[in-house]
Amino acid sequence: ELGKLGHSVSITRELQGNPEIAIGVNTALAQGSAGRIYVDSHQAWSGLPNHIDGVFLRSYFHQTFQRTVNYDLDIDKCFIVGNGIDPAEWTDLEDKQKCYYIWASSPERGLIHLLSLWPRIKTLKPNAELHIFYDVFRALDGFRWGINKMSLDCQMVYETLKNPEIEKLGIYLHGMVDRETYLQAMGKAEYLVYPC
Asked: Is a pLDDT exceeding 90 seen at residue 119?
């Protein structure tokens, strides 16, 4: 989209050198030396700096929601870019595997619910496998030490997944994987679960 507008684009997670355009999710980008600053916002978060040049959003709903949190965000600074899924990547995938479940999100977004339901699912479907594609332990580190409900839930998730016999329960931790591995897993999954 930016190329169509005549910009040369340099994508960076951190400001290195002096790119004409910096793209990132961290408001610290606004402190950098980039000529133009665009924020890639996969979630709605408040406090976008007023002097950014634009925000990349996934859908029109996301745009509307982002503008309710940042009411002064100019609609001309919003760029709908979608999720970046190329349908061609989904053509040579394996057949669906029965009872193959995937969790592919941050664990504080409801993994506790899935883990609490897992014994019941295994009773109904003894061959069920839960494959977790996320660096759950790294993600949980920031949440485990509080005293609120989410922290307690995250501590329980942490302890459950740290069990050395977790695979006997049909739960497999893959961590962060390359795109091809993830697409293959998604292609054979019967269920993508997100019970938040």
From this structure: yes
